[in-house]
Amino acid sequence: MGSAIHNRIAGIDDSRSLMDSAKVMQQPRSRRLLPLRQTLAALLLVFAGVALANITLALQHALFSGPSWQDSLASLTLAAVGVTLVWRGLTADDISGSIMGYAGGTFLWMGFFEWTWANWSVWLGIEPLMVNGQPALPASLLLVQASSFIFLPLVLLMAANRDTRCRMMRWCRRRLHLAPPAPVARQSNSAARVAATETVFVIWFIYLLNIALYDPRLLGYVSELYYSAVALIAGWGLYLAGRLVRIRNTGLVIRYAIPTAYLLSIPVDAMTMAGWFPAVWIQPLQYPIAAVATAAMFLLSVITLCRRRIPITGA
């Protein structure tokens, strides 16, 4: 489970027993793929996490309508939970750290970012985007959209970091033939930090992408360009899912599942907008059983991913 501890043998006394030597011998890296249930559990973990985040925010908005000290206290509590999860995850193994980092990053987004969009859009007096006399985008999403040129330089700085472990950044660098100096040795127990950072930036990116899809000044909802874009995003998500099943490390599968599941959530949202089925994850009071089932799926995913497997050794 997690990062294997490798111990190389150097100058072992011949008097040591064979059993003692075996304990310190380096185990060969497994070339076998992860069981499919591990990969599916990672995807389910992120999908359920996305739904639970929406359920939490919907409940918060139902309890506190508009900016208030109670709403701010609730957001600060969510942010504190996120900080705690990420901090505790720094000393956890790869799998637990990845889960705690993903959950912590989600709580950080709900506590800090969502509070910023919702409250400052009111305090700044931003009006919703109106089209034909009807609100097309709420003021909070316009504030998110205004952060585009904050998001982009931060992503560029991440891509320029020679020690980045983000596979998307590495893929972009390979395609653009940008070769930074060789990375230094990886820091141990950084899975929580990597997963939390990835989660925040992925959510931010998905917000900006969704806003572009629904903004009538850009792609605009219910247009041929909109449906083409959604189909392209669905294909991108399925491509990542195909790569996901080939990953051999459980911690990496969890981190890779974050962008995969978030991209696939966009066509799911599009289907709800088309009226195929209700968006139960933003209506927890109307669909309490679905909310409880989502929490149960998240817990089941955590248990499946953290279940220790006894390594099989042979000649």
What are the main properties of this structure?
315 residues, mainly alpha, disordered C terminus, two-stranded antiparallel ribbon, 11 helices, disordered N terminus
Describe this structure in words.
There is one protein chain. The chain has 315 residues and is an all-alpha fold. The chain has one domain. It contains 11 helices and 2 strands, in the order H-H-H-H-E-E-H-H-H-H-H-H-H. It has helices spanning 18-24, 36-63, 69-89, 94-123, 139-146, 148-160, 167-175, 191-214, 224-244, 250-273, 288-306; strands at 129-131, 134-137. The protein has a two-stranded antiparallel sheet. Strand 1 (129-131) and strand 2 form a beta hairpin. Helix 4 packs parallel to helix 10 (250-273) and helix 9 packs antiparallel against helix 10 (250-273). The longest helix has 30 residues, at 94-123. 28% of the residues are buried.
SSE order and pairing:
Elements: H1 18-24, H2 36-63, H3 69-89, H4 94-123, E1 129-131, E2 134-137, H5 139-146, H6 148-160, H7 167-175, H8 191-214, H9 224-244, H10 250-273, H11 288-306
Antiparallel strand pairs: 1-2
Helix pairs in contact: 2-4, 2-10, 2-11, 3-4, 3-8, 4-5, 4-8, 4-10, 5-8, 8-10, 9-10
The counted number of beta strands is 2
What is the helical fraction, as a range of percent? 55-70%
- Give the number of domains: 1
The proportion of residues in beta strands is under 5%
Largest sheet descriptor: 2 strands, antiparallel
- Low-pLDDT parts are 1-30, 310-315
Structural class: mainly alpha
Would you tell me the overall average pLDDT? 80
Number of helices: 11
Strand order of the largest sheet: 1-2
What radius of gyration results from the CA coordinates? 22 Å
The outline comes out as globular
Order of H and E elements: HHHHEEHHHHHHH
